[in-house]
């Protein structure tokens, strides 16, 4: 109107100005993407990115819609003849062929499908619905229609439509302004921005009550795109795994270009391994990880490698390992003295993040046997504290929890009297006091939002280097964030807990736990010979457990260097016999006693003629 009357300024009611401001923000976003809706004079202020904008249209050939939500665009199209017959019979005058008389029903169906797509995502504070059919705009304003076909569509959409009603703002736009959705519905629009995501239109809500499972499956199956199916299959892997596969595939694709990377061909993979090895820029474990990722990606694309191909690739990996340092890099565990000093120091030069936050995050990771990214993903709603000083942590998702079942880890207080615990190494009370000192935040916010993985790693190295002169620290720089989980596992072993306890508490799904305990027994190797000669063990069954016990009189005759060894995690028993992560730690469990599950009693054999018996 301003353009037509050549006006520079107009006065509008406050409510209309507010609505036009929010609407104009979405239209500006559309304009930035290179798709111009000719409503330039509305406003230039961007609205909240959490608001959603839906634009839809219909023709006698197809229906289509676009959805803008959380700063991302998605779109969908659906041919009329792809609609289930029961739906066409309900909304079309002639089910076999749509006509101009059916446009209102099809326009409403297009809007409802877009709303059903939005219902699968997070709730939007405000939903703008742009439509070039005035009748549909009136229906959406009232959520009512007296026509049977339109009323049937509204009834089917009730489960998701009602929750949108308070935030639903329908607007009429001209057909000229609706050229984008119009082009999609007529299948005449081809060039769309590359970052727009094509979606499968959700149709299961159109099922009548009491519809069979087969009918519902048939509706869901209508029109899924290859991109949708690929995204569905890829969701079987964790997000980090998908990112790793994507990085490896992109790297390999650039290496073999202009050749096609998949299916994998042995000469290309061997050349890839050779090039990474010769540059000297990649460690062997990185080369191994990339190669495994390529093989997994190859399998996900439906290709297989023969046994001969696998053998040739493994030979290349062995050659790469021989040419490199020949070992898989692993960060060492912290000594107990290092852990205590790290938790108690008051300042560290050149620290990039608050020391208190780093100390709390590290203690929770060590005593909870957390992976670093599990700690970084903790939110305020995930932690709670008990009266007896225990800390309860809900792990929503982890590396080995691909199905998102979650787990709760309970961390106890390190003091005998939790009510008066002042130990700076206590993860429970240290976290509780720190949370009380920081501003109260929303439950969905991250606890360690200001801590990144790289900052944590760099500052942890700085702390260990800073306290190195105070302890006999081997290789002060050979630590990382993953050293904390390794430290917790080895501390539990040093305390006398069985592998079963450690595996279940640390949520290991495989024997990968053994890699975390590698070298942990070296500190006790000097006592093996004497124990072999002088120590005799006896076993007896108590309840459902078999107890192996060393008599005190026998055990005392052998030289003792401590009950359980610990790789760099305890007081040094003999400075001359311990070196580079070899030390011994006393245990709260009795010396010489370790409890294992009872084994079933062997079946008795019948003694008869011909039985082969032998006295022991």
UniProtKB/TrEMBL annotation:
GO terms for biological process: DNA integration; DNA recombination. It comes from the Eukaryota. Residues 601-616 have a biased composition (Low complexity). Residues 572-616 are annotated as: Disordered. GO terms for molecular function: DNA binding. This is Tyr recombinase domain-containing protein. Keywords: DNA recombination. It comes from Perkinsus olseni (Perkinsus atlanticus). Residues 575-586 have a biased composition (Polar residues).
